[in-house]
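Friendly challenge for the regulars: who can give me the structure tokens for this chain first? No prize, just bragging rights.
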Amino acid sequence: MNILLSPFMSQALELAASAAERGEVPVGALIVREGRVIATATNAMCNGHDPTAHAEMLAIRNAAETLGNQRLDGCDLWVTLEPCAMCAGAISHARIARLYYAASDPKGGAVEHGARVFAQDTCHHRPEVYSGMGEAESSTMLRAFFAERR
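First reply, four minutes later:
Bragging rights claimed.
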């Protein structure tokens, strides 16, 4: 693992690895507020039979419950893969302040690819977006996961 990684992205990558061990696509997410992790999650779509159980969605739900508020003002989301359109919409609605993601997803991502949700005029809230931290680690994990299944 890259020694220069943020401890938050390192934790997200550890979560992603645990998802892969359970047969889920290796994506891990955590939400941080005032330097403290308040929610963590991994993909749980397969085992939970829930197509909406993306790591980001579950982390947002957990953080909202922890804070007792659907608005996650002042919170940062750290995730190992570029969010899809569903997750980007939830990030906007939750008012996440900053989004950090590791690997880009040209096929399913919706931040810098596809729908580019935050660039739309109809987007209510746009987080600050930072990408690429942990990209090599996340991409390697994702490629290995899918290579085993093909």
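The helical segments are 7-21, 45-48, 55-67, 85-94, 135-149. The beta strands are 28-33, 36-42, 75-81, 98-103, 128-131. Your move, everyone else.
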